[in-house]
Amino acid sequence: MTEKEYQSEIQKLNLKQLKRFWNKKQPGWDAGKVFEYSIIRAFELDGATVTYPYCVSNSAGVFEQIDGAIHLDNLSVLVESKNYGKKKALDIEPLAKLQVRLLRRPASVIGCIFSTSCFTWPAQLLVDTLEPKTILLWDKEDIEDCFKNGHFVKVLLEKYRCAIERGDHFFKPVALKKIKI
Questions:
Q1: What does the alpha-carbon distance between residue 57 and residue 178 come to, in Å, rounded to a whole number?
Q2: What is the pTM of this model?
Q3: What's the CA dihedral at 149, 68, 50, 25 to 10 degrees?
Q4: 3-23+30-55+62-178: CATH class
């Protein structure tokens, strides 16, 4: 399938259908595409303006593949999605890759890494010390909680607020059960 076909197919799904779709093998879909398009669609269904996966190129060819972007009133986010399953914890490489992409963008842009696995301890430590950009980490538990409750945008804003106020870039939305959202 082409990128346009992936986007067209995912945009046919409502939240209930997307909940069943995002974490399963789909005929005709690459597993990584299912995950990255599902994340973007979930934010779109929750009211965000989104850009589906795209490539950035110049006369030499493609030099960046972006898994998507999320735009809220005063916040823009570059998305990196990694579907490793439970087999492999995400290490620092995706953080470094996203950091380089963020350095080419306006200072107000942040990043989010969505993963179907956990993050290594070095990745969790590194994300708190990256300069000058903010990258927020989302693991499978975070994503499943958002699909269950349908609050992707509210959780993103709460994660961002916690990064601003406490320097916590891996805030867990399950803690939101104690907070009214």
A1: 45
A2: 0.91
A3: -50
A4: alpha beta
* Three-state DSSP string of 21-86: HCCCCCCCCCHHHHHHHHHHHHHHHCCCEEECCEEEEECCEEEEEECCEEEECCEEEEEEEECCCC
Q: Over the stretch 129-178, which tens digit does the pLDDT of each residue have?
A: 877 678 999 999 999 999 988 899 999 999 999 999 988 888 886 655 55
* Interacting residues of 11 by C-beta distance below 8 A, sequence separation 6+: 41, 44
Residue 81 is predicted with a pLDDT of: 94
Task: Write down the domain spans for the chain.
Answer: 3-23+30-55+62-178
At residue 114, does pLDDT exceed 90?
yes
Structure tokens at 122: 């070095």
